[in-house]
Amino acid sequence: MSAATVEAKKTLRDGAFGHATALSCRECGHQIELGPHYACPECFGPLEIAYDFPEVTKAEIEAGPRNIWRYKALLPVPSDIEQSPNMEPGFTRLLKANNLGRELGIDNLWVKDDSTNPTNSFKDRVVACALSAARELDAKVFACPSTGNLANAVAAAGARAGIKTVVFIPSNLEQPKQVNSAIYTENLIAVEGNYDDVNKLASEIAGEEDGWAFVNVNVRPYYAEGSKTLGYEIAEQLGWRLPDQIVIPVASGSQLTKVDKAFQELIKLGLVEDKPYRVFGAQAEGCSPVSAAFKAGVDAIRPVKPDTIAKSLAIGNPADGIYVLDVCNRTGGAVEDVTDDQVRDAIVLLARTEGVFTETAGGTTVGVLKKLVETGQLDTSLETVVINTGHGLKTLDAISDRVGARATIAPSYDAFVAAKII
Ligand SMILES: *Cc1c(COP(=O)(O)O)cnc(C)c1O
Ligand SMILES: [Zn+2]
């Protein structure tokens, strides 16, 4: 186990992490002081942020900015967070998806469209929280191992914040995702290997080098809290109500577990009514270790070697996989997977029914939504939210042989008529 490597300032400033009080072990409950730590010193379990929340009202939140900082009282960030340059992500559209709902036979369906974040994926949310931690801990380098979108978000946020960035990706990553990082940083490093190899390398560097904040490694507890804002927003946008069912993509599993944490916090804070809800996880068949464990009814994840077009979900050894199983089992949900062809079909389906162009991760999620209906695992009479986490322009290759010009015609009315287009 590596030592903590972002050198904490001698004294953290007051309120550096807002109302967070400690880092708490998910496995044994042991608590340690806030800092650049991510593994329990007692049992090596993952650390999570513990809070002492103040009273928070709907009116206070609603009076806040139209980005994730409207929920800053519930995040490990200082109360003056809006003063520091950041990407101001969040408060993305919650779209009533009547056409897709009709197509799938779901009465009451919503798409939470996170593709409109500043770098076009939900990762801007988590990176904004990690950036705040990196700043408060006085990190010199802002870094990440990434399946693509995270590198885009880190590179952009670092540029805006004026902090040096280094982002590591698998060398076989889609070209648009490479350009979308390299445009913001000189330090895009392609590693010969898959994400799990890149992640291992990052942990090694974090253990050796001082002053590096790896957003999803040594400041992961702070990073992960950013995903809660998806849950808060969905509830607020539904009129301070929880949905009955929600379908969420699973890579490391962090996002899914944090949306659930957000719902639980809203209930505890009295901001929504306590009611049952079911959480469903979505994976691609070519990288489905969590789905496989769910279906086998076991509580351990067997790592796999990813082979899927859903590269942003291609984590073969997901850090939060076992906690995804906990959430889906506890809430009466499920984890499902779909083939790459079903992913492509679902990308086209979402675009043609709702005008939303998603990447392969969203294709996976919408594909799983469809499969859950077909297999009777989802109750089509209940209010359902599906999360679109990324943008289709980053994975054009996935569907470029499915869609294109229907006809190429001469610029004349006769040619138009001859082509029998309508
Ligand atoms: C990273 C990512 C996810 C999943 O994130 P985890 O929190 O690691 O499960 C989902 N969708 C997209 C587009 C992503 O980039
Ligand atoms: Zn522990």
Automatic annotation (TrEMBL):
The modification N6-(pyridoxal phosphate)lysine is found at residue 123. The keyword Lyase applies. Keywords: Lyase, Pyridoxal phosphate. GO terms for biological process: isoleucine biosynthetic process; L-serine catabolic process; L-threonine catabolic process; threonine biosynthetic process. GO terms for molecular function: L-serine ammonia-lyase activity; threonine deaminase activity; threonine synthase activity. InterPro entries: Ser/Thr_Dehydratase, Thr_synthase-like, TrpB-like_PALP, TrpB-like_PALP_sf. Residues 89-390 form the Tryptophan synthase beta chain-like PALP domain. Belongs to the threonine synthase family. PANTHER family: L-THREONINE DEHYDRATASE CATABOLIC TDCB (PTHR48078:SF6), THREONINE DEHYDRATASE, MITOCHONDRIAL-RELATED (PTHR48078). This is Threonine synthase. It comes from Nocardioides daedukensis.
